[in-house]
Amino acid sequence: xxxxxxxxxxxxxxxxxxxxxxxxxxxxxxxxxxxxxxxxxxxxxxxxxxxxxxxxxxxxxxxxxxxxxxxxxxxxxxxxxxxxxxxxxxxxxxxxxxxxxxxxxxxxxxxxxxxxxxxxxxxxxxxxxxxxxxxxxxxxxxxxxxxxxxxxxxxxxxxxxxxxxxxxxxxxxxxxxxxxxxxxxxxxxxxxxxxxxxxxxxxxxxxxxxxxxxxxxxxxxxxxxxxxxxxxxxxxxxxxxxxxxxxxxxxxxxxxxxxxxxxxxxxxxxxxxxxxxxxxxxxxxxxxxxxxxxxxxxxxxxxxxxxxxxxxxxxxxxxxxxxxxxxxxxxxxxxxxxxxxxxxxxxxxxxxxxxxxxxxxxxxxxxxxxxxxxxxxxxxxxxxxxx
Length: 387
Hints:
Layout: E1 22-26, E2 32-36, E3 62-65, E4 72-75, E5 110-114, H1 131-139, E6 146-148, E7 152-157, H2 171-189, E8 196-203, E9 215-221, H3 226-238, H4 242-251, E10 256-259, E11 263-266, E12 275-281, H5 293-311, E13 320-325, E14 339-344, E15 346-348, E16 351-352, H6 357-362, H7 371-382
Antiparallel strand pairs: 1-2, 2-5, 3-4, 3-6, 5-7, 7-9, 8-9, 8-13, 10-11, 11-12, 12-14, 13-14, 15-16
């Protein structure tokens, strides 16, 4: 059934901005589609129905454990057939029109929908499954262990335009995307079997982007990811104030790029990538769902300034991965703070850093640029940028 009314609260305790309308709908094969309307939208409330005839969704992928590391690898073969750099008139993320039976039936400000060929989901864990027992089982190591890749993968369309990125948005539209991240984080965190929720944006062909349409994704994983497991181990060794202490040290140091009332962006002390920026909230917030409206409002303009500054480093747009790390859903909520890690392999106007022997095989990184020098360059680039 097609719906256009404002949705209810996404999850208990989640903060919702009443200025941004949320309009749930359903695609022809049953996948969820949610429209998020800008606070200053000019769109009507009514949205078209998806009248396509679609094939059944592929079966949920399975994952296999690497016993040498304990890590899980999702085998999602259906993703091999996804669209690769289509022309503008066949953009699958643009609003539907004659000749382009895209994924979104109506024009929109921001739209979120379930990925047709996801790496995780759409199957979820059994409703009576205990999270702590499931996590403990996944952390054990064995030979030829398999499990179902339960979870959810969603696409977040930032704009109906064919080309762009988060940095090309207006402040109002950026604020709508942030609201979508917050509300989807709350909803996905409440799904059975979800242990971590990860909003991110890949930008540029050099990163492997297959669609130029301005968009990001949200992955809801059935386990705590390897990167977060390493963070939890560091917190266990240092203490629960680790992330707060890092932020306090950086706010008084030489690598700060931007600072507001609620957020600070800086180049980290031990940056791996030629361009690497971390952005943290000043108070402890485990994920987007628990940020205040004031924090989201400031982030919209500050984040735009950061991304536009990164693009001013060179004459052409810089490829990057914008990774929003959030606390696990069921663990360490008081220790792990929401954090952006923006990374780019671009080490010069015409040079990229490739992960070769030491980094790719051993995880032993060698930095190409001193973090303080890169912070100076980024501050100069950000100077004069207005959101």
